[in-house]
Amino acid sequence: MASAVANPAAREELEEDKELQNELKLLVQKITGKDIKLIPAALEMLKYLIRTSTTSMTSVPKPLKYLAASYDLLKETHKLMPKGNPKNVLADVISVLAMGTAGGEEAKKNRDCLKYCLTGTMKNIGDWGHEYIRQLESEIVQQWIDSQCEAGDKILMPLIHDIIEFNCTHHAEIQACDLLMEIDQLSLLPKYIAPNNYKRMCYYLVSCTKYVDEAERSKIMNIAFEQYLKYEEHSTALILALQLNDDELVNDVFDSCKDKVILYQLAFICARHLYPLELDVRLPEYEELNNIISNNFLNGYFLSLARELDIMEPKLPEDVYKTWLEAVPPRLQILGENMDSARQNLASSFVNGFVNTGFGTDKLLSNNGGNKWIYRNKDHGMLSATASLGLIHLWDVDGGLTPIDKYLYTSDDYIKAGALLALGIVNCRVRNECDPALALLCDYINNNNKVLQIGAILGIGLAYAGSQRDDVLKLILPTLNTSKSLEVLAITSIACGLVSLGKNDNDVPSTILNVMIEKHGTEPESLKSVHMKLISLGVALCYFGARDSIDVPTNATEVFPEPFKSTIQNMLMMCSYAGTGDVLIIQELLAMVGEKTEPPEQDPTPANHNTKSKEQTKNRSKKWDHTMAQAVAALAVASVSFGEEIGMEMVQRIFGHMGKYGEPSVRRAVPLAIAISSISNPQLSVLDVLTKYSHDPDDEVACNAIFGLGLIGSGTNNARLSAGLRQLAVFHAKNPSQLFMVRIAQGLVHMGKGTVTLNPLHTDRMLLDPVGMAGLLIVTVSLLDPYSLILAKSHYLLYCLAISIQPRWLLTLNEHLEVIPTTVRVGQAVDVVGKAGTPKTISGIHTHTTPVLLAVAERAELATDQFEHFTPTLDGICVLKKSNDAVQT
Predict the structure, then answer these.
(1) 480-496: per-residue pLDDT in tens?
(2) Contact criterion met (CB below 8 Å) for 395 and 298
(3) φ, ψ for residue 99 (rounded to 5)?
(4) pLDDT tens digits for 839-886?
(5) Which long-range contacts (CB under 8 A, 24 or more apart) does 214-218 make?
(6) What's the DSSP call for residue 849?
(7) Is residue 493 within 8 Å of residue 535, measured between CB atoms?
(8) The model scores a pTM over 0.70
(9) CA-based diameter of the chain, in Å?
């Protein structure tokens, strides 16, 4: 009693509750009584009390709680009531009561909420509140699934339309999208999309496409595309068209856009994606747009960034190694680093190329001492040393060919082959009307010298990657039938795959497969060659992004024996589903990785693959590696999950188990798979895992882990990673192969002096660059058997990374395509899909003036009202236009 007196608010609340209970009881009595005249007024009052009841978000409204006991009585009354408005109103009340705990499990099972709603007034259902609408949505989905006849669907359709309209006008657009996706009626949605909600709805729909099948994905993307085009969001519409890889939709975007500045922006997006777009010559801006799409501005803009950051001074490999910081005992210094080792000179050639990428000058090759440095390498080493000139002059088609041209007239075939490859590298990602790469390299395609053939064909593959040009393919395809060398066949297959990347045409891959089948018939042992894996990868690259359209090549590979058949089929899945995040494919691949493979008795494979010498590697290569399909599957898991953040995080955990319990081949693939999942993004957790693998007793696992460290830090200048690599250089001072990999990794970390990235995701991580991803896959597949390729004589395959290199910048241009500085806010990207209101898209904000270097997980937005931009967020090259307010002032 004392506590009730002490708390008058509680006492008042109790009295209110009793009063409400009595009032509800009286109303129920009137509704269930025999006086028909009292029923309509009682029902209206009951409706009013339920609709106006307020309570906390975590508890049931009091009227619903107090009326629970009368639920069955009201149902019985409804049954006996004559047809008319009172009966319909009572059905509405019962429907709302069924939403709570009134009817118990029986009401949920019978879907009383939906059943009585359909027999009610069907007017203003939104007045009962959002929770009621959600309960109806849930029961509609269940009813739709169970309903076998169209009549049931027709009964539901008016209610569905009411619910969608309510959701779209009450900030519940996400629920509207979910409902229509669940009942497969998305075609109804455009009717309810309005200028104030289209962004939120389309953004949510597109984010759902990673979790649905191909047919549903295409339907959702097309709906979103139409809405973006309708509301003149041309850049976002183009992104969807590129995701669908639909030429017709891409052309529609360009045709519907009339603003010159937006057209420039669309062209820059296509150029970054390396999309082979053919423009209408009649366009007034044709020349500028063609230059943009051809990437002719790339080198000039990159050098302007370098001058702005004051990093034009060339660097020596020693500036990267910082050997003076390595605590190497004097005895090891005499044996190792101070010796003029050909392998260390080769590593320095790569590092020199990586570090000075795109700057057009260096201290080893650009001066008169170029010949001197090249001759400090051995045979095949001279090829890679000369080819590094291509990286130094990357994207500079006009000025980069002259310094390389003089090496074409040397008598040494290795140097000449390196120059041919360098010519191809210079033309990476740049289209030129004169086709200098084709003009200079075509004469060497059918050369009798194998080394010159390799340099020319790989050069053409890199120069025309993603171009899908038939004339280029016609030049290099005949080599598949004329050459007897497996190495030349492997490089030709890779080049064909790169040129026809994403074409999804059966002509090129069928030619390669015919050669493989013929080889299998005449030289069965050839399938065991490491080069056969590269030939298979060439076939797979032709179907990049094809998704489930790989039935033809999959059936064609049935003629091969295991494990080669599974290997090539896994490669097809790796390329066709790359970056899709398809959960079913990832599960299928993980199941393959987890299988225990027992080699046949007649062809025993050593249980332990701890390779300590080249001799052991040679012996092993003569036998089947029965787990190589699983190794490719591990890489495929990383490739498929790439770009889908939750999937990438989950598979990285699974890779930890693979590394502990997997087969030896799988253990070699795990560090590479982890690196692909975190490319140019040195997260501490990934860094620690790869550092642990870099000390592995298996030499090949250690080598791949060290290279993986280079990949995750590529172009970041990460200080922690650099210090870790210096420690590894000391740890592996006696092991030439591991030390070679450490040096390569150091070069990758400091690539482009910290201004570039290997990450193929671009335009706010919405698009996956197929050419960039292909470059990474070629190198990582080569490293599945490092001692046979990269650490042997095929180290030139590392230059396939050249097609993946892109500046990691935010560059702002004006309407005349001139670089202009502007203030931007940069921070960590935040996922705002489905969030209420207008949440911030970045956190941890810092204000900078462009040009700005962006890390993988960073996002930028304008910090000034002076300009407006035409991309979803600021990323890469952005064309700005003065805003209307700025023009008026």
Answers:
(1) 888 888 999 999 999 99
(2) yes
(3) -65, -35
(4) 888 888 899 998 999 998 898 999 988 899 888 888 899 999 988 765
(5) 214/547, 214/548, 216/181, 218/244
(6) E
(7) yes
(8) yes
(9) 114
